[in-house]
Amino acid sequence: MSGGGLLVAGTTSDAGKSVVTAGICRWLVRQGVKVAPFKAQNMSLNSFVTREGAEIGRAQAMQAQAARVEPTALMNPVLLKPGSDRSSQVVLLGKPVGEMSARGFFGTAGGRKYGEGVQGGHREALLGTVTECLAELRSQYDAVICEGAGSPAEINLRRTDIVNMGIARAADFPVVVVGDIDRGGVFASFFGTTALLAEEDQRLIAGYLVNKFRGDVSLLEPGLRMLEDLTGRRTYGVLPYAHGLGIDEEDGLRVSMRGAVRESVVAPPVGQDVLRVAVCAVPLMSNFTDVDALAAEPGVVVRFVDRPEELADADLVVVPGTRGTVRALEWLHERGLAAALRRRAAEGRPVLGICGGFQVLGERIEDEVESRAGVVDGLGLLPVRVRFAREKTLARPVGEALGEPVAGYEIHHGVAEVLGGEAFLDGCRAGSVWGTHWHGSLESDAFRRAFLREVATAAGRRFVPAPDTSFEALREEQLDTLGDLIEEHADTDGLWRLIESGAPGGLPFVPPGAPEVHG
């Protein structure tokens, strides 16, 4: 017997689909329901490596943790990793299969392949793949909570859609649309989203969920009643604005603005000083969630920067991962940050490079795969040479550094040849400059504390890491908070009826409706 399901769609990107999906998963598993998350197609530079060595969206890994299950490639069968404004690497069932333009993916043009790669005009094949993955999950779980992407009312993309109404229609899943009321215009967004859908798509739109509400809910109720009168669809809950949630994001929306600060969810510093961390907001920044563990430490302030003067008071500068290593290197030079990083290294002030950030700190980059730029000089801060290979490294390494155990994950095409320095997480250290391909290493609590002590000493700060901060425990608290939001502020009985029985019958058509499209 197949498990039931629900698709969580949104009026816009960043409406709260990922966290609502995670919250529903955590609520269900606390009720004894065996539940799994699913996102047919994700576009994100924040990814994760499963135990079997498959690459999936980091948001789906977070949702799997909320469901208390091990993440697998079935939960995110198609992952698109942008390499520019017009092209993305296509990851299918956890493995990269090619580079494709947006027109190639959504239309009929082809793309650059790795071996047996992807072809244009392939929507039916991909829909078949994601439908099979969903069916497999439904055979293993009592319920599957699907997350949509962007908005289901992207009428220019409906013909090729496999992640919103495409998968909902294929699985006959009910859809709840999430809207971010904090941005304003939520009623127009709910109504417009519904009215732009074809009649057969509208049949599955069961209702709405208001996210990020501040204030007295009674003031909202007249609008909710009018929305139901206009659409014939009810609202399944009003979720309050929750401060301090450091849950993994799919993209860089919140950190794309200069000076954006990573919210801390913990206490003031234990010692006399805070520790200031500046993260270079490089183009195509990937896995910037690496710094979340730093922001979780009492007294550590993390901000994203793009000007050299913003490095002046930083005790640690992080050059994060990027999908475009050579482009990031060019950007560092253009912004004057390359010279600032070289000055820091000469002065013995701490710098940490992670993955692509590690690569730019080396002596030389040879890239005929990602950028096809050939041989490019790095910043020369680490004795490392990097050559890009066509085969992507996907791994879950464990090891030791600074006398403490460390675990991480690797996602990169660059192969590093370390020519000197001290060993550091399969990378190296030269003075106050560290570099590694390992993402997630700072989530290892004892290692993170040891690393911050080294940084504080080099920076001359009287900073003391808290002895008992557990990043895993903090993440669990945040996921429990999401579950609490659903349990306390959503109609859980109504949501369960949708999961178990599907969309209510007789939902009215909201004109004008888009014309029916066929692949």
Name some characteristics of this structure:
single chain; 519 residues; Rossmann fold; eight-stranded mixed beta sheet; ligase; ligase activity
Strand order across the biggest sheet? 14-17-15-18-20-29-28-27
Would you tell me which CATH topology of the largest domain applies? Rossmann fold
- Give the overall average pLDDT: 91
Question: Globular, elongated, flat, extended or rod-shaped: what is the shape?
Answer: globular
> What's the β-strand tally?
29
InterPro entries: Class_I_gatase-like, CobQ/CobB/MinD/ParA_Nub-bd_dom, CobQ_GATase1, CobQ_N, CobQ_synth, GATase_3, P-loop_NTPase
GO molecular function: ABC-type vitamin B12 transporter activity; ligase activity
Active site: 355, 439
Domain CobB/CobQ-like glutamine amidotransferase: 276-446
Describe the structure.
- With about 525 residues, this protein is of the alpha/beta class.
- The protein folds into two domains: about 5-245 and about 475-500, Rossmann fold (3-Layer(aba) Sandwich); about 265-470, Class I glutamine amidotransferase (GATase) domain (Rossmann fold, 3-Layer(aba) Sandwich).
- It is built from 15 helices and 29 strands.
- An eight-stranded mixed beta sheet has the order 14-17-15-18-20-29-28-27. A six-stranded parallel beta sheet has the order 2-10-1-11-12-13, with helices on both faces. The protein has a five-stranded mixed beta sheet with strand order 3-6-7-8-9.
- Strand 28 (about 425-430) and strand 29 form a beta hairpin.
- The protein starts with a strand and ends in an 18-residue tail after the last helix.
- Mean pLDDT is about 90; it is low at about 110-120 and about 250-260.
- InterPro entries: Class_I_gatase-like, CobQ/CobB/MinD/ParA_Nub-bd_dom, CobQ_GATase1, CobQ_N, CobQ_synth, GATase_3, P-loop_NTPase.
- Pfam families: CbiA (PF01656), GATase_3 (PF07685).
- Catalyzes amidations at positions B, D, E, and G on adenosylcobyrinic A,C-diamide. NH(2) groups are provided by glutamine, and one molecule of ATP is hydrogenolyzed for each amidation.
- Pathway: Cofactor biosynthesis; adenosylcobalamin biosynthesis.
- Keywords: Cobalamin biosynthesis, Glutamine amidotransferase, Ligase.
